[in-house]
Amino acid sequence: MTLLIISPDYASHLLPLATLGTAWRDAGERVVVATGPATAAIVESFGYERVNLQLGKGSNPGVIRAEEQRKGEDDALRGFFAATREGMVETLAFQAEARLSDLMWDPVRVGREVQAVVQAVGADAIIVDHLAFSARLALTAQGVPFADVVLGHPTALPVGDEVYGYPPVWPAAFTPDASALAALHELCERVSTNFTAEWNAALSQLAPELPPSLDAFAEHGDLLLYNYPAELSDPQRTAILPPHAFLGSSVREEPRDDEVEAWIAASDQPYVYVSFGSFLSVRADVLARVIAALRDLGVRAAIALGSADRAELGDIPDGFLVREFLPQVRLLDDAAAAVTHGGNNSVTEAMTAGVPLVVLPFSTDQFAGAAAIEDAGFGVALAPNTATIEQLTAAIEAVLALPRVPLATDLRAHPGPQRAYDALRSPLAE
């Protein structure tokens, strides 16, 4: 049997998707990944075959920097970073306006390339990142069944009266102006209409016999796989989802890092893991306040700098482990708490390790994810732009006092790759 994984050229997307493929690999089956060249090393590290497929203008091999992107994409990234400094509504509005160009890049050409890859590989099963809209459009046009993996909070796929890009729930710390929210909602509706028109224009060229979509953002594959714990999903919302399976988490294996192992073993004192992911680590101003709060608490910390300028972080206490990149899964295993932007990998990996969180959401579905963590009692959410050092100190102290997250037992006992493997073999997937 051959499994084909289709992923954008972003490490944060490919890592969980590639991890899902390990269930097929370990069963002795063939795994082929269609993605761009920036993440070729990740594909190789899993022992998979790679077919070149560029699904978007940008790429991210692990830590993204504007100056390393192609012309035009670099300015778009700088614009996004600037919007996060203005606030939640401004960031969501910036992302909404950018969607026509960054989610459906040259869809007819890319769609035909996807169709050629599927034919050449001869896949028996296909897993596609939900955000690979051009790829999903191509498979829909070709009539090829596929599993659609939502790498984010479940609201990344709107259902009911939800509008893509407009979070249906917010953490308590965010109190945006009602008129600003109304304008954002109107913008997201307008973008959805325009995006659907673009989807239908491409569909009319790839498969003119198929009916047009009513809402392209609500389109999905034959089987939905949510890389998210079912226990954190609103039961009323879960009840109206299309055919689906919750994978819980897709936690990757990491190579041993001797420096990290030595640092963990050097002290019995609890430590806090801190990371804002591959994009939002650029917010050195927020990271500096988190470090100051940790310094006030007198606890150890392991901090993944990403693209942050270390010179902007102030005095870093002796005994802190600070590097551009750290093995997140390994450090979460023994962490007492974590501070995160609320990305899907960070949240699901922390839940699998049983680690309570301080969530500082900046964009997209991170707001809904932070609200879910807060509502479940597994952490505290704060607004990153306005949270003071004192508020961060109190939040970290409160999270350190929480018990281990109880989801960890089930998530470890039933790992995401096996759940995906079973779901694609169930009658639901046929």
Percentage of residues in strands: 5-15%
Poorly predicted runs: 64-69
Number of separate strands: 13
Output the CATH topology of the largest domain.
Answer: Rossmann fold
* Widest sheet: strand ordering: 3-2-1-4-5-6-7
Structural class: alpha/beta
Question: Main β-sheet, in a few words?
Answer: 7 strands, parallel
CATH homologous superfamily classification of the largest domain:
Glycogen Phosphorylase B
With helices defined by DSSP (H or I, 4 residues minimum), what is the helix count?
A: 18
Any idea what the shape is?
Answer: globular
The domain tally reads: 2
Calculate Rg over CA atoms: 21 Å
Mean pLDDT: 92
The CATH architecture assignment of the largest domain turns out to be 3-Layer(aba) Sandwich
CATH class identity of the largest domain: Alpha Beta
Secondary structure: helix percent: 40-55%
Pfam family, one: UDPGT
GO molecular function: UDP-glycosyltransferase activity
Organism: Lacisediminihabitans changchengi
Family: Belongs to the UDP-glycosyltransferase family.
Itemize the secondary structure elements and their pairings.
Elements: E1 2-6, H1 11-20, H2 22-26, E2 30-35, H3 40-46, E3 49-52, H4 73-86, H5 88-102, H6 107-121, E4 125-129, H7 133-142, E5 147-150, H8 178-206, E6 223-226, H9 235-238, E7 244-246, H10 258-265, E8 271-275, H11 277-280, H12 284-297, E9 300-304, E10 321-323, H13 328-334, E11 337-340, H14 344-353, E12 357-359, H15 366-376, E13 379-381, H16 389-400, H17 407-413, H18 416-424
Parallel strand pairs: 1-2, 1-4, 2-3, 4-5, 5-6, 6-7, 8-9, 8-11, 9-10, 11-12, 12-13
Helix pairs in contact: 4-5, 5-8, 6-7, 6-8, 7-8, 12-16, 13-14
